[in-house]
Amino acid sequence: MTHRENTKVSEGAVLSPDIPLLSIDRLTVQSGGIPLIDELELDVSAGSSVAIIDSGRGSKAALLDAICGLRSASSGSVRLDGRRLKQGFSAKTFWGVLFTGILVGLLCAAAAVDIDRLWLAVVKRGLVVDEPFTPANFGRRLRSYFRAELAIDRLAGNWRIVTADGREVLAVRRDLSEARELRNQMQAAVTARRTGPGVVPDITDLVGDANEPQRELLLDETTLDRLAAGKRRIRFRGWSAFICGLFLGVGMSLAIWQRGRRSPEVAARAGVARTFRSPRNFPAMTVFENILVTVEQGIYRKSSAWWPHVNKANCIERTEELIRSVGLIDQSFSFASDLTRYEQRCLGIARGLAMDPRILLIDEPADGMNTQQQHALAGILKDVCKGVLTLVVTSAGNDPVALICDRTVHLSPH
Amino acid sequence: MKIQWPSLSHFVKWSKKNWEIPVFTMLALAPWFYPALAGGLGGQMTSVLIICIAALGLNVMVGFTGFLHLGIASFFGLGGLFLAILTVPMNPLEIGFLPAVFVSVGLTAAIGTLLGSPTLRLRGEYLAIVTLGFGEVVRVLFLNLENVTGGTQGLGPIPPPGSGIFVTGIDLGREFVVDSRWFYYLSLIALFVVVLLVRVLEKSALGRAWIAVREEPLAAATIGISATKVRLSAFTIAAAIAGLAGCLSVASIGTTGDPNAFGFNRSVAILCAVIIGGLGSIPGTLVGVTILFGFDIVVIPSVDSWMQRIQGQVFDVSLFTLGSWRLALVGIALIVVMRFRPIGLIPSRRFAAEFQESKQ
Amino acid sequence: MDVASFLQQCGIGITSGGFLGLIAVGYTLVYGTVGLIHFAHGDVVMLGGCLSLAILSFLVPVPVDPLTGCLVVVLAAACSGLFCGCLNICIDQFVYRPLRNAPPLSPLVSTIGVSFVLMNVGLIWIGPTDRAFPEIFLETTRSVGGFSIAMADLLVLVIVVPAVLCLYVLLRQTRFGRSLRSIAAITRVTARSGEAGKLVIATFFLSGFLGGVASVAAGVHATTINYQMGHQMGLYALTAAVLGGIGSVPGAIVGGLIVGLIRAISVAFLGPRWAIASVFLVLIIFLAFRPQGIFGKSKTRGGQR
Known about the structure:
The structure holds three protein chains of three kinds.
Chain A: E1 3-7, E2 22-31, E3 34-44, E4 49-53, H1 58-68, E5 75-80, E6 83-84, H2 91-112, H3 115-128, H4 135-146, E7 150-155, E8 158-163, E9 169-173, H5 176-195, E10 204-207, E11 214-217, H6 221-259, H7 264-270, E12 272-274, H8 287-302, H9 312-326, H10 341-354, E13 359-362, H11 371-384, E14 390-395, H12 400-403, E15 407-411
Helix pairs in contact in A: 2-6, 3-4, 5-6, 8-9, 8-10, 9-10
Chain B: H1 8-17, H2 20-33, H3 40-64, H4 72-87, H5 97-119, H6 124-144, H7 146-149, E1 166-167, E2 170-171, H8 172-178, H9 180-203, H10 205-215, H11 217-222, H12 227-253, H13 264-277, H14 282-315, H15 326-340, H16 349-359
Antiparallel strand pairs in B: 1-2
Helix pairs in contact in B: 2-9, 3-9, 3-12, 3-13, 3-14, 4-5, 4-6, 4-12, 5-12, 8-9, 9-10, 10-12, 13-14
Chain C: H1 3-34, H2 41-59, H3 66-96, H4 106-126, E1 131-132, E2 141-144, E3 147-150, H5 151-173, H6 175-182, H7 194-222, E4 224-225, H8 229-244, H9 249-270, H10 275-289
Antiparallel strand pairs in C: 1-4, 2-3
């Protein structure tokens, strides 16, 4: 789709300074296989106004959608001030992705090392054996859990020697000091087994009833091997789960970030404001609130602080100024849904201005308006915007609103 | 000199605008006029007040921001769980009530942010299912991490607020346990604070951003409101408020009790209460919760016992117990209210306007 | 865990996924036509299960040979399907239809209300405890090529596979199916009028029918039913519908199979308590990478809506 350009120079217009504010390069926008816009090239310089005229229905809205990020282009690019309207990979993104990855990794690792048993070993067991809860004790118990060492537990007056996760009971004794000594012996055997195969210690326990006592070996080969492998097992589980979780978290956050890169908010943050042909004002908010929320968001956009300070009085003042400039002062406190179509258009323009944008895209402002209203709109645009702001106005034909622009571009079919 | 007495219509208008003051005054003075509040009825009313707090949190998410949240009870449960873990004598931490409330609300809000970040970009229905799923996952975690949460028995006994504090020789902790009016007043104050907080938020810049995202997400995006950040803030605040309610609930009951009380049924009941009362409207939420939960907790048992008495007198045997039809009665009530007043009992001005707009 | 028992577990997962998929189709169909999440669907299925329990207890008081057993079960499935379909239509006409123009979340409250009512009916009908399905077959397992297949699973396949095939034929070949597929979401206003209204009724009947058939399969597979079964299965089925892309019928079936598989695998490796957690974690992770579900359409970006 080629375009014919009619450059109409009116008095006082500024003609092309060096870098165009908006530059569209071979933009193609398709809808279901049909190209609405085909390889469009357009440069708009700062402070100028362009009217884009096309008699068809879909292309103008598609063009504006593509500029402000509501629609993705099949090919070509849109640049504002030489930069594409895409969210870059900033330091903040990097730290966010890394943080998410580490968090997910920690959660996976916690699940893998069985956080339930960990809590039992570290928090609850201390109470059972009447040990005070000091940071030193806490650290010690945590370390011994991750070394899969044996611990002492109590059940109904008996002291038991258990594995750190509490799953296996190895021996039971009545006396605490005896239990402690036995535990140290067994732990020494396990630690020795970790370094290499050696002698199985002769620790036995008396089982069976009083008439036929038997001696049972507490730590046979298989048990010893299993206990010795416990440390490696838990560390393996923990680390592999952490790494899997890290990759998963990083992958998820990157996928989410990637999807949000080219979105309308990015364009708005860069300073692109847009009105819609069927006015999209916030219906159940008053005119005042409609503009106020836009002003506030404009301030948030400009300040890079985490929690920007918004001066309420300034906002209210600016809101009133804008309402006055489009002539809606009498309807300040009526809901936007109660306004006439003309008033809604004015509100849309006021909202666009409230953003304090660098470029304002106005979608078919003359649509559905009678001649008087069109002239009124043209007047508003001329007074408030022209020369100060860069304007792109779309229109179905040469109406008064389009005529105020410096340049006219026709999108015509081949 | 003519003194102008304020007329009744002035008073009514002022009340409508500042309805909190008469309502809360009445509630605060109620125990003097109705001594039954010192006993069982007080406990029931306390639980209704606590659910009101959680419902206000949900209202922030569903009413102001317009996103369906089917798992609010899980945040309710998490708040209570954290409080229990921090204060129960079984655990070595045992910090006081007030610091524990702060920490658990903070932790619950953090979990809300963590859950919200990947999921709030999804479309509405998907988000609803994700919150539903999160609720179920939390319920399963409650049941299965037995050492941490106490499993089906729950953690207890939870020391009441003010235990160990002696004021003019009275043990505050004991007072809380013995006289249910103490918890009643504590919940009332908490509810008042939350109502004021939500009102302030509604009128703030953040509140306007929430409403903008709800009404026209596309237009909101084009003025630079990051829908995700806005929803995330609402989600976090809803989680924090629900966590606060959970802390109070668990403290007043004394144990984390049955983890099924923090499940889908509870979430759904609170959601229904908010919608019946009127989305986005604070008095509506309170009325909705009072009607739904008051109906369920207070009315049905008393009507049931009255019916049993009458049946006993007339037939000598009870043929029909209302209790076994409780679910159906609540369900029918929901259907009827929605049929005849779909916008809610006390809708906010905005919702009424939006509904009119969408009808055209 | 050796390969054979893992495969067996996968088999169990796929069979349970089959009937989960049928229930998920119910959710997806209703959402696709009227834009409503029909929360009461799970409870409708549960009531279908109650009816089939009654029918089977009546017809098969003692275990019988495979052929008679299959016939009886198919009969019970058809009856249950009819019952659930009609119940769904009644719910729509009496409860949902007046609310076609209501504000967005109000119909949701009605669905929850209906769910409560139906759950209570189920409670009264079969009582608060689990009720066992009758033993239908004389032999409970049969070995086919080295694996032992439970007759119950075979029965589930006998019910589910024809249902899915019929559904496929219905949606692809008939006019009704084509009009169903071409409608993304009927606006609330037009759903009152003739052609669209008939379509809505047919949709509700179809989703109910499939749910009723699935309830028999679920009962045979789990061997018990419970009045809260509707909520639990509904949760899994709704997850399956979302995973597959809500509004897409093949997505619902595929989603159901995946959910069944995940559930079985997590039961095998982690124990039955963590099943629902695994399913939801997989859902969240999947939605992070593909938010529209497997077969769902991505969010339409553009000025027009």
